[in-house]
Write a structure and sequence with these properties.
Blueprint lengths: L15 E7 L3 E7 L5 H13 L17
Antiparallel strand pairs: 1-2
Length: 67
Protein backbone atom coordinates (compact mmCIF):
# COMPACT_ATOMS: atom_id res chain seq x y z
CA UNK A 1 0.00 0.00 0.00
CA UNK A 2 1.14 3.54 -0.57
CA UNK A 3 0.28 6.87 -2.08
CA UNK A 4 0.13 8.09 -5.64
CA UNK A 5 1.33 11.65 -6.22
CA UNK A 6 -1.52 14.08 -6.96
CA UNK A 7 0.25 15.08 -10.20
CA UNK A 8 -0.83 11.71 -11.64
CA UNK A 9 -4.43 12.93 -12.00
CA UNK A 10 -4.05 13.49 -15.77
CA UNK A 11 -2.77 9.92 -16.22
CA UNK A 12 -5.77 8.65 -14.25
CA UNK A 13 -8.52 10.13 -16.40
CA UNK A 14 -8.61 13.40 -14.47
CA UNK A 15 -9.76 11.67 -11.31
CA UNK A 16 -9.32 13.43 -7.97
CA UNK A 17 -6.47 11.94 -5.94
CA UNK A 18 -6.70 11.94 -2.14
CA UNK A 19 -4.62 10.28 0.56
CA UNK A 20 -5.80 8.50 3.69
CA UNK A 21 -4.62 5.87 6.15
CA UNK A 22 -6.08 2.42 6.79
CA UNK A 23 -6.18 1.43 10.46
CA UNK A 24 -4.45 4.77 11.17
CA UNK A 25 -1.22 3.22 9.91
CA UNK A 26 -1.11 2.19 6.25
CA UNK A 27 -1.11 4.97 3.61
CA UNK A 28 -3.53 4.57 0.69
CA UNK A 29 -4.58 6.63 -2.32
CA UNK A 30 -8.25 7.17 -3.12
CA UNK A 31 -9.28 8.08 -6.67
CA UNK A 32 -12.72 9.59 -7.23
CA UNK A 33 -14.39 11.04 -10.29
CA UNK A 34 -16.47 10.39 -13.36
CA UNK A 35 -15.21 8.28 -16.24
CA UNK A 36 -16.86 8.18 -19.65
CA UNK A 37 -17.17 4.41 -19.91
CA UNK A 38 -15.70 1.05 -18.92
CA UNK A 39 -12.88 1.52 -21.42
CA UNK A 40 -11.76 4.63 -19.53
CA UNK A 41 -11.89 2.65 -16.27
CA UNK A 42 -9.74 -0.11 -17.76
CA UNK A 43 -7.27 2.57 -18.90
CA UNK A 44 -6.95 3.90 -15.34
CA UNK A 45 -6.60 0.38 -13.93
CA UNK A 46 -3.89 -0.45 -16.51
CA UNK A 47 -2.01 2.77 -15.66
CA UNK A 48 -2.02 1.86 -11.97
CA UNK A 49 -0.90 -1.69 -12.79
CA UNK A 50 1.93 -0.42 -15.02
CA UNK A 51 3.41 1.68 -12.19
CA UNK A 52 3.04 -1.14 -9.66
CA UNK A 53 0.18 0.23 -7.57
CA UNK A 54 -1.83 -2.52 -5.88
CA UNK A 55 -5.58 -2.16 -6.35
CA UNK A 56 -7.58 -2.79 -3.19
CA UNK A 57 -11.11 -2.16 -4.47
CA UNK A 58 -13.22 -0.49 -7.14
CA UNK A 59 -16.65 0.88 -6.26
CA UNK A 60 -19.21 2.12 -8.76
CA UNK A 61 -21.76 4.56 -7.41
CA UNK A 62 -24.59 6.28 -9.24
CA UNK A 63 -23.59 9.77 -10.32
CA UNK A 64 -25.61 12.74 -9.12
CA UNK A 65 -26.04 14.80 -12.28
CA UNK A 66 -26.72 18.54 -11.93
CA UNK A 67 -30.23 19.67 -12.85
Amino acid sequence: MGTLDKNWSDYCGGMKIEHDRVLNEYPVTILTGLLTDQGALIGVINTLYDVGCPLISVECVEAQLPR
